[in-house]
Amino acid sequence: MRVIEENLFADLSSFLPLAALKTYDEYTFTHAINIAILTMAQAESLGVPKRMVHDFGVAGLLHDIGKTTVPEHILKKAGKLEPHEFEEMKKHPVNGSIMLLKNPEVPKLAAIVAYEHHLQYDLSGYPALPQKRPQHLCSMLTSISDFYDALRTNRPYSDAKPSEDILAMLEARIGVNHEERLARHFMALIRARTAA
Ligand SMILES: [Fe+2]
Ligand SMILES: [Fe+2]
Fold first, then answer.
1. Smallest-distance ligand from the CA of 127
2. φ, ψ for residue 174, nearest 5 deg
3. How far is the CA of 31 from the centre of ligand 1 (A)?
4. Which of 44, 60, 77, 187 would be a feasible disulfide site paired with 39, CB 3.0-4.6 Å?
């Protein structure tokens, strides 16, 4: 939290969209803060330059901002989404990136990550890309943080899982949902923290 405060809340203008998210959905707001922390921790220990770590944090914080455009009854639904509801949910990356591009105060990286964070490593996710292309490092880190935090938290439709179980699930998804070196680095990072 101290890192967040020092690095991120210092430039408040970036967080105007986030305030909207807090009033809209408390879970998504807390999730946003967790993703910022986990993504900055990964970036820092991978040796990403400090100035960029800040932008990675902002991008992590705003990755789900497009959820403010998802109807509330879908966003807060306790239980599995119907196919047509999932189609609505799947619009949040594109809608989020458009929202962020309209705000000149927000680093461009945040719009990229909002757009890319559900692509998956093998691009089997969404949105569908017109052609295969590499994704930004920060999107891949955010996706790993996202996977971990979603399973680590109690949700209306699933209980929180133990950290080790999630890391095993992450390992099983290497090469499909997550890039190998980054996934293994994350596993080592979490294990070092839980052992400390
Ligand atoms: Fe998302
Ligand atoms: Fe997310």
1. 1
2. -60, 135
3. 10
4. 60
